[in-house]
């Protein structure tokens, strides 16, 4: 009988493409951390004040300035303008 060598694992082979539950759990935790950080940053941006100069025409020109948050909707902006005009 011919002598057969033992086959074993080759430590030089790239295995990063193979599934690894521990690595996937770490990646998922990192994604969640980054998602939460991104949401916090977006909330801070939405709460920053924004100064808008607008004008309206009712026979004469009116130019006014109003301050709203960056995250406000157009409807909220229009309600604020309406309150300021009245």
TrEMBL record:
Residues 1-34 are annotated as: Disordered. Residues 20-34 have a biased composition (Basic and acidic residues). Residues 49-82 form the FAM50A/XAP5 C-terminal domain. GO terms for cellular component: nucleus. It comes from Acer saccharum (Sugar maple). PANTHER family: PROTEIN FAM50A (PTHR12722:SF0), XAP-5 PROTEIN-RELATED (PTHR12722). It comes from the Eukaryota. Pfam families: XAP5. GO terms for biological process: chromatin organization. This is FAM50A/XAP5 C-terminal domain-containing protein. InterPro entries: FAM50A/XAP5_C, XAP5.
């Amino acid at each position: 009988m011919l002598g057969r060598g033992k086959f074993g694992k080759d430590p030089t082979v790239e295995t990063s493409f193979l599934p690894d539950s521990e690595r996937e759990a770490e990646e998922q935790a990192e994604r969640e951390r980054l998602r939460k950080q991104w949401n916090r940053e977006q909330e801070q941006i939405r709460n920053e004040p924004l100064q808008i100069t607008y004008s309206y025409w009712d026979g004469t020109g009116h130019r006014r300035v109003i301050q709203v948050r960056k995250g406000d909707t157009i409807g909220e902006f229009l309600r604020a303008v309406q309150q300021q005009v009245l």
